[in-house]
Amino acid sequence: MAVYLDNAATTRPCEPAVSAVFQNMVEDYGNPSSLHALGLKAEQNLSEARKSIAAALVCDPQCITFTSGATECNNTAVFGTVKNYGKRKKKIVVSAIEHPSVAEPIKYLEEKEGFEVVRIKPSRGGEIAVEDFIDAVDENTCLVSCMLVNNETGSIQPVRKIFSYVKRNFPECVTHCDAVQAFMKLPIKSAELFADIIVVSGHKVHAVKGVGAMYVRKGIRVAPLLMGGGQEKGLRSGTESVPLIAGFGAAVRALMPTMSVAYSNAEEIKAYLLKKLAKLDYITVNSASENSSPYITNFSVKGIRSEIMLHFLESKEIYVSSGSACSKGAHSSVLTAMGIPDKLADSAIRVSIGRTTTKGEIDLLVNAVQEGYQSLAKAK
Asked: Is the pTM of this model over 0.90?
């Protein structure tokens, strides 16, 4: 039986999401912009999903915009913000551990558009210091970006404290939060996060791939990347993918009531994993911060490169990753920013548990890691 421990990369769609996708593909297949009955039904389903995402973020449904995924959301947030707010203010303050869909657009603005970019590095445990952000933000800053949960280490960032300072002292500065790995795991209240823009993704929460959503606080002007028919209040033109959006909404509605129970289970599973890893002297846990998500654990296996151990585990039908799925095995900028030595970073494994992960599956993982180390170390 396969053991899937790569839930930070993607999750298995839940039955309500699959059913909603199917329903909106074969029966409620109208264009939500059409004025006939099928179009109106599609618009109703779109509206219902919008309300579900809004309820999870505790915000007005009109603040929710659907896109093709979190990458599009983050690109829109970065480029759309600086287009409106970066004409006079040319400074961006961002954490050094952002997902590539945030880091790369900001790098482009730095190299091609002349923006000053200050990247705030985390501690060895992976957490950003609030004071470092506060010291970097000034009256020339147009955008402050910090993710809520890091996708490689699970470290939870003090976004509320950072953003509350920014909005109190520099109210015109836009605050942006990639909350992909926090959504439907940690409770998120948009107003209490002091974020102007919040980004979430469907396939990380048991919906399907190809749909994301962004919360944009009322009054915040974000220029669109796409222009055309003016769908999604003009922020994201193009006919909405109602099947995917409906599936997203269905997944959120189905899983919201058990979010706290799932979190407690994840805490128990992670504690069990860390206890077993602590007995292995060739294991170094990289996600050492106590303030971290129970869903993600990052550790290194001494002397064994990530991809080699990954494929050994795959041969046992145990599926993990070596870091962000989007990096496709590239060297981890997150671990580097944390000050983790290259040898450890090159042997890092990310285990991301899901709602159904069991201690028995953790036993299989740890036993396989032990077997892999003994086998692969001898082969060197």
From this structure: yes
